[in-house]
Amino acid sequence: MATPIKFGTSGWRAIVAEEFTIANIRRAVTGIAKFVASQPGTQHTILVGRDPRFLGETFVAEAASVLAANGVTPRIIPDAAPTPAISYAVRQQKVAGAINFTASHNPPEYNGIKFSTADGAPALPETTRQIEAAIEALGESAVPAAPEGKYDQVDVKPDYLKRIGELVDFSVIQKSGLKVVFDPFWGAARGYSCHILREHGVPVETVHDYRDVLFGGHAPEPDGELLDECRAKMKETGAGIGIATDGDADRFGIVDADGTYIQPNYIIALLFDYLMETRGWNNGVAKSVATTNLINALAEKHGVPLYETPVGFKYIGELINADKIVIGGEESAGLTIRGHVPEKDGVLAGLLVTEMVARRGKDLGTQLKELFNKVGSFYPNRENFRLTPEVKTKFTEKVKGDPTELGGRKVSSIVRIDGLKLVLDDGSWVCYRLSGTEPVVRVYTEVRKQEDSARLSEAAKAWVME
Question: Domains in the chain and their CATH numbers?
């Protein structure tokens, strides 16, 4: 029986040599090719790129052959490239889309296929459903591939970095004397953030700046507990900020001058406030339903519309394309800004934060305290709980109901944009989202007083298990 291939919020991912095989890659790419070929017009060229994962070059070559056999012209990106750079190249070159071999921040044994459409955005559900149907229609029949050939190649780096140079004020960073440490996590942003900083005369040092397909033996995810070498290099060099990107550079991680990891919820809020202050824009702001309500408070303060989306950056990408927002972000460390790609950009995020620190002359901890003084304090948290089959079945039914209380506190409103979000009478909230790939429920909580965080977390967990 053929392996089912399903495109989630960021494409199809699987373990290499288990489900992520040459045969299944051929099936997935054939499904994409059939979708592209069915679109109106004659521009049936797509980019094919990758992050630095194991066998990436082989998978790119295989995809090119399958595309060619199905009447779609492949254009190869020969070197590992950030997902946002590929997205920008799709728009600049006016091609029909891109296939990107990446598993983003997943552990090293994974790889994946992400498909972006002609606007450079992650494919929306209506597109991925058509691709999945085309794959399913193949059944177990062998998928043809063209003989290995030579295809056009493109270097996406120069144009992308030129655009970053237009979006970030590097003169402010250079004049401030701020020193930077960049951690690409052995990933696709190697030679990007550090290159453009050096080009503008900003002192920068790097860690993990070489290819390692095992990513140091863990997932290439720039979370606080994995940034110790970045912190050490900051201390050694006297750097005022550490910036990091994940395996395909669509996500970011930020370390403050004192070594504190600043969670993405706060970075998105700080940048929203900063961009409103410095860019003169008056568009709205977008956030996923699981992202901090600090952004809601800031939207009210600035008098601009708030757009709350399901989890999945494709929904924020639509708002960027429609020029409705200054910034859009998700608590899972993805953001983009007005005039840029409708895709998460970890390179841009880190550089904008660097600009913000340089211009304001204050560390991020100080800036966050000042933000709290303006609109109040918010303390978000996220936990994953693994469920037994019995508990999962029961919980799946439970979230369809409308609870009136949680942990003895009244539920004032219910939001069902994605999962179940319970807003309590004091403004704190809990959001439950069941994983589509494993027996896990993701539980997001946020309180207004830090001392209430543990109590709400316990109540949220108890509601899952009761």
Answer: 12-155 (3.40.120.10), 159-375 (3.40.120.10), 379-465 (3.30.310.50)
